[in-house]
Design goal:
mainly alpha, Lysozyme, 2 domains, about 60% helix, globular, Lysozyme-like_dom_sf
């Protein structure tokens, strides 16, 4: 346990801005926030894995979402919903990056809403007109479920599944964009 705490402290120190000294302890507020977030992260098999993944992704997401609390809450939701749907959370982050640039209030020219740009007709299809697609948890549940369905329908072919998700089956531009974000920015090596 002491080794894990020491490793977490080292990771937190490395995540601090370049101007901060590595000898300084991480900000207590960030450490406490991360510990609470890890405790609430119910989709991880191991607490240490949760700490490492949340810290790594939080550091990457900082430029798009400056508020640490908001970032960690979103990351916990992404991990939970992606895991429930059988998706890789880092791939879902890449899709969000491509779709909305992490703007939960994004609305496309065709009316798709939220982080994963879910079309509102799905609410009527499901008999749930009260659902709010700009609510991150709701949007992630819809989006991850839809993407998971298309991935199964396409027998694991991520390019075709992404094209179906985007409504651009037969075209490669959108899948290449998402896969590019995934490989260049969000991918986590096993």
């Amino acid at each position: 346990m002491a080794l894990r705490s020491a490793l977490l402290m080292l990771l937190l120190a490395l995540a601090l801005p370049a101007t901060a000294s590595l000898r300084q302890a991480p900000e207590p507020e960030l450490r406490d926030l991360l510990q609470r977030t890890v405790a609430e992260a119910d989709s991880f098999q191991d607490r240490f894995d949760a700490e490492v993944w949340l810290l790594d992704m939080s550091t990457r997401l900082t430029r798009y979402m400056p508020d640490a609390s908001e970032r960690l809450t979103l990351l916990r939701l992404v991990h939970r919903e992606a895991s429930k749907a059988g998706l890789k959370p880092d791939m879902v982050l890449a899709l969000i990056h491509a779709e909305s640039h992490f703007d939960r209030f994004a609305i496309s020219s065709v009316g798709a809403q939220g982080l994963m740009q879910v079309m509102p007709f799905w609410k009527a299809e499901l008999g749930r007109p009260q659902d709010n697609l700009t609510d991150n948890a709701t949007n992630l549940r819809y989006g991850c479920t839809i993407l998971s369905y298309y991935l199964k329908r396409e027998n694991g072919d991520i390019q075709r599944a992404l094209a179906r998700y985007n409504g651009s089956l037969g075209k490669t531009r959108y899948p290449a964009k998402v896969i590019g974000f995934w490989q260049d920015f969000w991918y986590v090596k096993p």
